[in-house]
Specification:
alpha+beta; eight-stranded mixed barrel
């Protein structure tokens, strides 16, 4: 099976094979017919030659017989015969023998008593059957005989006087002269061969050359026995047709004449004709071959082009469109391949988009951003130009997503992404979304000054509420900045350092932070603190602080808010903002809550022993609200310390409720069912809806200090506080104001109907042991100096105190 590399080769080979087969199918019968025709012509020539040969012999016999009859009719000869004059008969025979060129001549009487022959015939008369010759002559048949190993044709003529009295017999030798005479008339080679009783087949004479005659002699014996009318033999690589005729035949002797004609002269012209036909056939095949090759090439050319296009597609070139110029099957195939190419291109682009783009925002993803930073570093390496990697995080995105829905959160992310993209410094800058609420910006050829200006611009943009789905929402961001080559030599280091700066920005609530090595030290210290915090709980290194609360109308103390401080054996006083966020992340916050609840119950039990009807509020974290065992734990603490549930207040933030609203609601309802007083802390800073809060069994709403501190200077804040108080009262909630810094604000809150308040004007957070002193002095309206533990003392007389700045160490979450 022949394997072809190209279809056009297979088509050309197939059609060419068919053409050659057709031509051979015509040439072979033609060749056969030509050979047959040549043989027929040769046979006809042999047949004609044979007839001419016979006619010639008959004609010669007749002529010789007439010539001999002249002698037989001669009077003198008949008189000599009549008188048995042998001498005269012999003389007459010799004279006439020479005249008619006979080789032998003799007379024989009718009774065979007188036999006279010429001198040449005397020797052969002994072996000649004269009587048989006379009988054959009378029968009219040609008579040949072999006499003395020589063949002769015998002519017998009767001598009459008037009756037949004797016979004249003339003998003519069968020799080359006769053969040549026959050849001249028949154009056939003539060969005489004979066999005698003493000699096998021998050549008598032949017109053919000696070699051919000898070959013929070797085959005559076999051919003669076959008794065919025509023989065909190959002699000297040439085909001959033979006609063999027996001139004399006895059991011991035979004289044969072989007429031989070659077929070659007849096939020669036909072979030339055949060769011409063959040449024409080859020329035709050649023309067909060129035509077939051209047609097959033209036919397969579009397929070859499709193969090239397929190779391009296989090499990943999906952009080049396959040109379709025909409407046949190849055209349909090209259209199908175009469709396949387009589908593959679209899938490839989609895969590329998924691999390098964020599907939600259409921005680059982390992988593409890393590659972009890597390329930028490669570009900037030679010129030593700086670039900036800025990581931006949206504060409280998870609560927003859970409260307002995922679709809203997705639109917010798209909006933030577009804002970041709109404010890049050049077209080469990149904006990517790294994580759920985290973005990254690559600013090319940017030093620290330009990077911070970009961060300031972003902060300014988000200072105004953004509109998403027709709803205005405040967006706060944290930003970390890392610079190449100052803060890293590769993309991974820059991104890690920018995220480190971002974490610091979030921890310190700073608009932006530029990375520095000290941040790494802070993080290391933080990890150390987490480890030490677990030991701090066990080794009683934590302190309970109380910030007092009063009834705004009567200005009498009603209790306080329990806060925490950590006295580290090596680092000294550590404030909650340095360890609470990490405690929440690591789960240690649950142990801290348990410690706070225990200490609060112990303090309340002491108050109860002192006859004081005060309450303490303890903050609960998100993890606490997801702890289904918390109600049982609190029940056990209250009962073990002999406390009423109303003595302990629990403060929860809007954000902690939104982490897992369903689970938090279930825990809150169990706590409320126990008779515990529940308060929403830092109201106004979260994103909980009023409809949701209304469903919760809370009794108190604490207005965040950021709205209260400057309500004496900012009418907007005053309006918010007033609206919140009215709203809470309409919902049946008691209102507590945080951040009361001066008496004016205290009086203003009293006029607005606020129920309770706390702040530096009333009392800073203080150790539990100092709370009794403060209580006595507050109630007695005396001036006192107390140690509030934060190294911030002031005259306790609130009426003479100046407004104080906000406490940077206030633990809002505990």
């Amino acid at each position: 099976m022949i394997k072809f590399k190209h279809i056009r080769s297979r088509i050309a080979f197939t059609f060419l094979t068919v053409v050659v087969a057709i031509q051979l199918a015509g040439l072979i019968p033609l060749k056969y017919a030509l050979v047959k025709h040549a043989n027929t012509l040769a046979e006809d020539q042999i047949d004609v030659g044979q007839r001419v040969f016979v006619s010639l012999l008959q004609h010669n016999t007749q002529s010789l017989k007439q010539a001999t009859q002249v002698l037989a009719a001669d009077f003198a000869f008949r008189e000599a015969v009549a008188t048995n004059d042998a001498e005269t008969i012999e003389s007459a025979l010799e004279s006439y023998q020479g005249r008619i060129r006979a080789q032998i001549a003799f007379y024989i009487s009718n009774d065979e008593n007188l036999v006279v022959g010429t001198s040449d015939a005397k020797a052969i008369l002994k072996s000649l059957d004269a009587r048989q010759a006379i009988i054959q002559s009378n029968a009219g048949t040609l008579q040949f005989d072999i006499v003395d190993d020589k063949p002769y044709q015998l002519i017998t003529v009767p001598v009459k006087a008037p009756e037949t009295i004797g016979w004249i017999v003339m003998g003519f030798a069968v020799d080359s002269q006769l053969a040549s005479q026959i050849k001249q008339l028949t154009h056939l080679d003539v060969t005489f061969v004979q066999k005698t009783n003493v000699k096998n087949w021998q050549l008598v004479s032949s017109t053919a050359d000696k070699a051919l005659s000898n070959l013929l002699l070797k085959t005559v014996a076999d051919l003669y026995r076959q008794r065919l009318t025509l023989h065909s033999v190959d002699l000297n690589d040439e085909t001959y047709h033979l006609k063999i005729r027996a001139l004399h035949e006895t059991p011991d002797e035979a004289l044969l004449v072989v007429l031989q004609g070659s077929v070659a002269p007849f096939t020669q012209d036909l072979n030339i004709l055949f060769k011409v036909m063959l040449v024409l056939t080859l020329i035709g095949v050649g023309i067909f071959a060129v035509l077939i090759w051209y047609v097959s090439r033209k036919t397969t050319e579009p397929i070859a082009e499709l193969v090239k296009d397929a190779d391009k597609i296989a090499m990943g070139d999906y952009e080049t469109e396959i040109q379709v110029s025909s409407t046949d099957e190849v055209g349909y195939l090209a259209k199908a391949m175009n469709g396949m190419r387009e589908a593959v291109l679209q899938r490839s682009l989609r895969i590329q988009r998924l691999a390098f783009n964020d599907e939600l925002t259409g921005l680059y993803n982390r992988l593409a951003f890393n590659q972009g930073v890597h390329q930028a570093i490669s570009t900037h390496a030679d010129s030593q130009q700086k670039l900036s990697v800025i990581v931006i995080n949206i504060h409280r995105f998870k609560p927003i997503n859970q409260t307002l829905g995922r679709d809203f959160g997705d639109d917010l992310l798209r909006h933030v992404g577009q804002v970041l993209k709109q404010h890049v410094l050049s077209e080469k800058d990149m904006v990517a979304r790294l994580d759920a609420d985290e973005f990254a910006v690559l600013l090319q050829q940017t030093d620290q000054a330009k990077a911070t200006r970009y961060a300031d611009k972003i902060q300014q943009v988000f200072e105004q509420p953004v509109s998403v789905q027709g709803q205005a929402i405040d967006v706060r961001t944290g930003i970390g900045i890392a610079l190449y080559p100052d803060h890293g030599m590769d993309e991974e280091a820059l991104l890690n350092h920018a995220e480190t700066a971002l974490q610091e920005s979030r921890a310190k609530k700073s608009p932006w932070i530029v990375y520095n090595t000290a941040l790494e030290i802070d993080q290391s210290e933080t990890l150390t603190l987490i480890s030490d915090l677990k030991q701090a709980i066990q080794h009683d290194q934590l302190l309970l602080y109380i910030q007092p609360k009063i009834d705004i109308t009567t200005r009498r103390a009603v209790g306080g808010e329990a806060l925490i401080r950590w006295v580290h054996p090596e680092k000294g006083m550590i404030f909650p903002d340095q360890f609470i966020p990490f405690a929440e992340q690591t789960g240690v916050i649950s142990d801290i809550t348990n410690w706070m609840l225990l200490r609060a119950c112990q303090v309340l039990a002491d108050f109860q022993k002192q006859g004081l009807r005060l309450s303490l509020a303890v903050n609960l974290s998100t993890r606490d609200l997801n702890n289904m065992e918390l109600p049982a734990q609190i029940t056990h603490l209250l009962s073990s310390h002999g406390l009423e549930p109303k003595a302990l207040k629990l403060e929860i933030t809007e954000g902690s409720l939104m982490q897992d609203p369903e689970r938090a609601e279930l825990v809150v309802k169990k706590l409320a069912a126990m008779g515990l007083h529940l308060a929403i802390d830092d109201f106004g800073t979260g994103y909980s809806s009023l409809a949701y809060l209304r469903q919760l069994p809370v009794q108190e709403l604490k207005i965040d200090r950021s709205f209260v501190m400057f309500m004496d200077k900012n009418s907007g804040d005053a309006s918010i506080v007033k609206s919140t108080i009215d709203l809470a009262h309409n919902l049946g909630l008691m209102v507590v104001a945080e951040g009361i810094e001066n008496e004016y604000v205290l009086n203003q809150l009293a006029r607005l109907g606020c129920n309770e308040g706390q702040g530096y004007f009333i009392g800073k957070p203080m150790p539990e042991k100092d709370f009794s002193i403060w209580l006595q002095r507050w109630e007695g309206q005396n001036e006192i100096e107390i140690d509030i533990g934060d190294d911030l003392s002031f005259a306790i007389n609130p009426l003479e105190a100046d407004p104080q700045p906000s406490d940077p160490f206030k633990l809002d979450n505990i």
